[in-house]
Amino acid sequence: MDLVPALEEPLKKVLGPPTAKVMAEHLGLHTVGDLLHHYPRRYEERGQLTHLADLPMDEHVTVVAQVADARLHTFASARAPRGKGQRLEVTITDGSGRLQLVFFGNGVHKPHKDLLPGTRAMFSGKVSLFNRRLQLAHPAYELLRGDTDETVETWAGALIPIYPATAKLESWKIGKAIQTVLPSAQEAVDPLPDSLREGRGLLSLPEALLKIHRPHTKADIDDARARLKWDEAFVLQVALARRRHADAQLPAVPRRPAPDGLLSAFDDRLPFTLTEGQQKVSQEIFDDLATEHPMHRLLQGEVGSGKTMVALRAMLAVVDAGGQAAMLAPTEVLAQQHHRSIVEMMGELAEGGMLGGVEHATKVVLLTGSMGAAGRRQALLDLVTGEAGIVIGTHALIEDKVQFHDLGLVVVDEQHRFGVEQRDALRGKGKQPPHLLVMTATPIPRTVAMTVFGDLETSVLDQLPAGRSPIASHVVPAADKPHFLARAWQRVREEVEGGHQAYVVCPRIGDEEDGPGKAKKRSPEDEAEKRPPLAVLDVADQLARGPLQGLEVEVLHGRMPPDDKDAVMRRFAAGDTDVLVATTVIEVGVNVPNATAMVVMDADRFGVSQLHQLRGRVGRGSAPGLCLLVTEMPEASPARQRLDAVAATLDGFELSRIDLEQRREGDVLGQAQSGARSSLRVLAVIEDEEVIAEARQEAAQVVASDPELAAYPGLRTALDALLDEEREQYLEKG
Predict the structure, then answer these.
(1) Which of 145, 151, 212 is closest to 185 using CA atoms?
(2) Cβ distance 368 to 273 under 8 Å?
(3) Among 320, 332, 504, 677, which has the highest number of CB atoms less than 10 A from its own CB?
(4) Contact indicator for 504, 559 with CB cutoff of 8 Å
(5) Are 24 and 11 in contact (CB under 8 A)?
(6) What confidence score (pLDDT) does residue 325 get?
């Protein structure tokens, strides 16, 4: 591997051990190359001042501002009883807003001397609230002085890079460290093929690094960012293209359904016709299953778009062709639910080997961790003999003891809940790699799908089956308008009186054993209201004794024994329970068409996609659905805006864009890339859709002509850096 010596140089050698230690621990930067790729978050012009009104609470910020006034106060305190305590209050301004700085004790002398009215400086610290005013306590600062040989104009117009920093290392110290290593940028080996770079008029890598850290004009910044975005998109897409290329070389057994076998018998029994979308996606899957290389397909579908039906038909096609199909579900509740609904949909076709079973019938078995020994033994036997064509289970399916007769297809439900290792272990149970179908009900914007699941082909189901009802969603501001909450419970009663059922969802169970020692880190919103999130057990109790008195109220949560959970779900599905108070265990796959209303308590504690998933549990029958999002957050808060967005649209793809814009993409990619640190620094998955799509095409061409990248040493080096071991494994197992 041809390393780039200058960029591989450890920071310890260049900057000295103390600074290098802070950079490694707090920013994950270890080499000169890492530091050069730590790009500024934004730029300030010396002559212009930061907008102080928009500073985020509780975040570490760097601002450029001017001192308006400074006052030194003395006061008495326990440590300085004779009135000798000192406090320096400095007000800084951006010309419109003001911000208070405070310094205490011995820390007042230097700032008192430095921060005279009219002085301009960069200030860095954590924004907090004191007496309802924003302030920085003991901020670090760097005075902005013009060098004598600079004219006032060039000094005032200079762009100051503001770096992602930490309390231990201010932005300007990072800037100084970068100035020290910047000459090494000349030795950066360019990962982009010359033809691609020249064809698109992009800067060379050394030039881009120079311009992003030391721009003379705003155009310099734009050019540098455009180039560095391409690096990130292209290198990632090459990694994924190589993965697809390698998969295409693997052998697999083609699985073609018999002309009048199990699949035809099943289709003939269906009491409804499949939607156009279901037919189209099924055809894509059948085409993949018929090839001699393993299918790798991602099936995205809106909540309730009939993904399970598509997956079941794929499983039946494989059974028809003499193979077995396994469906992996994230929770026991969901595995039991899938098993129940698949057996119901198949009827006598699921009674293979039993009296009353019909021709072509197969056996459908369930395998979960909490099954009794006898049931488990029988299920394992049915799998190894091939008696069972379809198995549905949790990660219990992955254990060493589980042997298949001939595993042909693996269906993974709710991809984001499964580790890559688990998918890999299940795939290893086939004689040859089985075909893989990954399903998710969390709509993923196209660019994220290309970036995160770029090694999978994508199918989308965006049509709802006939007979589905619209869901009305409303935000219930419990703190501002308590009578709205009372009305919400009244609405639940009305639904029950109309012969329907309702869910009430809470963020917590309520029997947590968190002693005082285990206090969880709380978000600023929690701190603001000093109240733990509402719990299932407390809420169920209050409702049964209060507004829902006389109704049949039950609870469901993840810590109940599996048999109890199953019993509760059965009673709810049968209509014996009026109201189910639950945690998010009902988020995916629970299907009770008679449930028409859902009340989500503390809705601001859930993510956008999660609320959309939850809401999809109602309106599954012919009666319209109602979803009420209860919150105590004030009207102008970001949490309230998020809830308003959910209430305003039923389009999951639109919501996933909002969700992504609100969270940083790094979180999304980091999650999907098995927790690895996101490699994206300048590429914004939502905004840079074109760059990603073009990079994917270019990457596919490069890999098709030169899979080993023999002609692209710079690209190989960049790939090695991206695919540190964790990523390498992720892509290997993808």
Answers:
(1) 212
(2) no
(3) 504
(4) no
(5) yes
(6) 94
